[in-house]
Amino acid sequence: MTLKKHIPNLITLGNLFCGTVATIFAVESNFVGAGLFVVLGILFDFFDGFAARLLNVSGELGKQLDSLADMVTSGVVPGIVMFQLLSSKNISSFSDITDKIFLTGFNFELIQLLGLLLTLGACYRLAKFNIDTRQSDSFIGLPTPAMSLFVISLPLIQEYSTIEFVQNLLSNNYFLILITLLLTYVMNAELPLFSLKFKDYSFKKNMVVYIFLLTSLILIIAFNFLSIPIIIILYILLSILKK
Fold this sequence. Notes:
mainly alpha; Four Helix Bundle (Hemerythrin (Met), subunit A); 68% helix; two-stranded antiparallel sheet; two-stranded antiparallel ribbon
């Protein structure tokens, strides 16, 4: 019984392990490695809840572990990725605030710190989620894993997309700062979003979810990494329409 009780917690620690490795890759600007371990961490995050329901075990410890692991995988990592993407080289109006900071061998530009708003927003959302009893069957505000996937996809799109317009957007700090502010807001907004959990598998009751999953599959096949932010925007729009 004791071992069964801790299986979901061990899976959650797998999420934390993946998030920690992803953090190391993100600091080194290895965005492919960071993205891979973020996806693995999110899979662990899904299966810990699945295992808890399957084994009929749950508790406050698991709930807190889940949020702490998510804070790394879906809070710290996207903040570091956006920190790495931001640069003052394309924005002359930021020239007065982009002096280099030199601390214990590290040097960076002040504008890059704006990327860490994602980490702060994720922390605030996870804390709210733990005390909000309304989010058992749906979400209020964008879940942190969705935000993390959105952000980690950006450098991969920048690297592998052949669409010049998209490349120009992702090289523009104004656009990156706008994304940062919007994602930070949407995570904590009073915005009802549907969950991908199934109580039953009838098409009538889950029509929006089935449409979303099918459309997502088509987008992934058609657009590769570019599909990820499109899917998350679609998720928000379908939730608004469903509401």
